[in-house]
Amino acid sequence: MPTFSRTHWFEGISMRHTFSAMVLVVGTSTLYAEPTPIDWPDLIDQSVQSYEDPFLDLDYEQVDDLRRVVALQAEIDGGNSSPETGTQLNEVKAELSAQGIDADWLISQRWIVAERRELAGAAGNAALDGETISLGGFAIPAPPDEDGSAMAYLVPERGMCSHVPPPPPNQMIRLRLSDGWTPTRVHEPILVTGRINIDPSDRQMMVVDGFISMNATFSMDVDEVQTFGQSDKAVAPATNDWAKSLADGFQNGTKSGVTGQ
After folding, report:
1. What is the pLDDT of residues 87-118, one digit of tens each?
2. Are the C-beta atoms of residues 166 and 215 closer than 8 Å to each other?
3. Count of alpha carbons within 13 angstroms of residue 37, beta-carbon side
4. Which secondary-structure segment (H or E) carries 154?
């Protein structure tokens, strides 16, 4: 049966203490990680933003002519065309060809381009997945989650999802709130701090003008919310240019004008 000397015993104690210290340091660094201030463009996966879009150079009349080509071709394919339909189709194609536009090729590209646009608007920056960040934006109240958690959405500009169309999914964050705070009004300006994750979601929600699809690439477990006085309501900017300087101010310890948490 093996025996252990006093030296071995002390070595074992030392190793256990060292391991405990390592766990404590790692745990502390995780729990008290300093948030990284970011701005909205940082959320976007830049690797999928560059792609060929042959439709960008078309003017309104050219796009309208392409719609006519699609409609006329659909009539012919569906067996509902008149003797003039084929003639009209050839005339529109000839007009576009005279302008250097290949209608058939462009129409064949429309779904490819649509997929690339969708990817560009939905792809999130993988480098931020799981990171603790701070970001300024405008909060939209949301119904509680299935588990009862208070929820909201963060968007980069005032008016989005109500009087203005929703932003791309990679410019919307679904917030899981804590500490009993919820937005007091639609588009309340706030600065949030918490762990952000790439966690796509799409929920139907009533926002001012009716039901709308809240399609968000990100979710965030919110640790802290900085809110602003009611007096700011009338003068808060319509765009998010203030967010970066606001985050820098908090990073430097400047919190003037802040109320709430």
Report:
1. 999 999 999 999 999 999 999 999 999 999 99
2. yes
3. 14
4. strand 151-155
